[in-house]
Amino acid sequence: QVQLQESGPGLVKPSQTLSLTCTVSGDSISSDSCYWSWLRQPAGKGLEWIGRIYTSGSTNYNPSLKSRVTISVDTSKNQFSLNLSSVTAADTAVYYCAREARGPSVAGTGYFYYYMDVWGKGTTVTVSS
Amino acid sequence: DIQMTQSPSSLSASVGDRVTITCRASQSIRSYLHWYQQRPGKAPKLLIYAASSLQSGVPSRFSGSGSGTDFTLTISSLQPEDFATYYCQQSYSTPRTFGQGTKVEIK
After folding, report:
1. Which DSSP category does B81 fall into?
2. Within a 10 A sphere around the Cβ of B30, how many other Cβ atoms?
3. Residue A104 sits at the chain B interface (C-beta within 8 Å)
4. What is the per-residue pLDDT across A9-20, written as a single tens digit (0 to 9) for each?
5. B32/A113 CB distance under 8 A
6. Are residues B98 and A49, on separate chains, in Cβ contact within 8 Å?
7. Residue B45 and residue A116: Cβ atoms within 8 Å?
8. Distance CA B50, CA A111 (A)
9. What does the pLDDT look like over B76-107, one tens digit per residue?
10. Does residue A64 register a pLDDT over 90?
11. Shortest distance, CA A129 to any CA of chain B (angstroms)
């Protein structure tokens, strides 16, 4: 059974860097059939995709956050991490890590469906002095 | 970015009702559309992937349809545990984007 667990400080001061780690169990972060993603959800609001990383280290980021985001992977610890710099109160949210798994192929294309099939429980991060 | 728009934003329904939620993409996303359920204080849970495929372990009262820009999530007979918020999400391109959510409440 695959499980993801977020960890990190629950309180970060404005202008500082938010750092979170997601520990993966039951699957190898070196798998070539999935991406490892970060998302967030402000209280009472919808889901925002932050970005993802592949085992090779290749990343994709949300352009709205790209200048402040770094996602990295540590295969020796089966973990991946999120750094978000220069935080403000607008970055206060529940942060989730998720596995974006490769599903069936799309008929006639050679491409695959990818969807977030396993999520961590989420961790609340508050930005406040 | 591909914009995802859900309707309605909220609805009230009774146990046993048939419920339909729609999701519209700002451009064609073929069938790269997935549905999630989120109960209060919990992480989202994958219900439907590739527009119409039921995720393992999800009750068969959930179904999805559509392709291109218009999609539907249907709950055939609403159960007490189905009162939650539902999100659609596209994986046609990055950044991945979600609908704003549809909250299903008890009538």
Report:
1. G
2. 18
3. yes
4. 999 999 999 999
5. yes
6. yes
7. no
8. 12
9. 999 999 999 999 999 999 999 999 999 999 88
10. yes
11. 25
Q: What is the pLDDT of residue A105?
A: 86
- Hey, what amino acid is at B51? A
In terms of C-beta density within 10 A (0-12 exposed, 13-18 middle, 19 or more buried), how is residue A56 classed? exposed
Q: How far apart are CA B57 and CA B54, in angstroms?
A: 8
- Predicted confidence at residue A25, as pLDDT, reads 96
Give chain B positions within 8 Å (CB) of A114: 91
Whether the Cβ atoms of residue A73 and residue A66 lie closer than 8 Å to each other: no
- pLDDT category at A106 given cuts 50, 70, 90 is confident
Sequence-distant (≥ 6) Cβ neighbours of residue B35 within 8 angstroms:
B23, B46, B47, B48, B62, B64, B73, B86, B87, B88, B89
Find the angle CA(A80)-CA(B3)-CA(A122) to the nearest 5 degrees: 30
Give the separation between CA B53 and CA A123, rounded to whole angstroms: 30
Q: A116 to chain B nearest CA, in Å? A: 7
- Contact status of B68 with chain A (Cβ, < 8 Å): no
* CB within 8 Å: B44 and A62: no
Strand (E) or helix (H) holding B85? strand B85-90
